[in-house]
Automatic annotation (TrEMBL):
Annotated InterPro entries: GIY-YIG_endonuc, GIY-YIG_endonuc_sf, UPF0213_domain
Top-level taxonomic group: Bacteria
Pfam families (UniProt xref): GIY-YIG
Family: Belongs to the UPF0213 family.
Domain GIY-YIG span(s) in chain numbering: 17-95
Protein name listed in UniProt: Excinuclease ABC, C subunit domain protein
Organism encoding this protein: Shewanella frigidimarina (strain NCIMB 400)
Length: 107
C-alpha cells in the first residue's frame, strides 16, 4: 500500500512548485523530516548547526539529504510532513529506497 502512495505523490508532484518535504539521515542513522521552500538553503542551515538549524540535528553530523518531494503549497507540505512523521522507520526507509529507484540521479 505504501508503494502506491509513493508513486502517487511522486507522479503528482513532479513539477518544481515551491514547497518541499525532505528527509535527512544523521551520522547515527536517525531520520529527520521537515518542509521548506528551499532545500539547498535549509540543508546548509542544518549542516552549519547555526541558530536556524533544527535542534534535533545539532551535533549529529555529517548529515545526508536522502529524500525530497515537491508539493503544491505550504498546506499540502505540512499535511504530508505529518503523514510521513507518523510512518515507522521501515516505512520511511521504503519511501527513501523507492525514491532512489525512481530518481537515481538525485543522490
Amino acid at each position: 500500500m505504501i508503494t502506491l502512495k509513493v508513486l502517487y505523490f511522486m507522479s503528482k508532484n513532479n513539477a518544481k512548485t515551491g514547497w518541499y518535504l525532505y528527509i535527512i539521515r544523521c551520522a547515527n542513522s536517525h531520520l529527520y523530516t521537515g518542509i521548506t521552500t528551499d532545500i539547498a538553503r535549509r540543508f546548509a542551515e542544518h549542516q552549519a548547526s547555526g541558530p536556524k538549524a533544527a535542534k534535533y540535528l545539532k551535533g549529529k553530523g555529517p548529515l545526508t539529504l536522502v529524500y525530497q518531494e515537491s508539493l503544491a503549497d505550504r498546506s499540502e507540505a505540512s499535511k504530508r510532513e505529518i503523514t510521513v512523521k507518523k510512518y515507522t522507520r521501515q516505512q520511511k526507509l521504503l519511501l527513501i529506497e523507492q525514491h532512489a529507484l525512481i530518481h537515481p540521479t538525485e543522490r
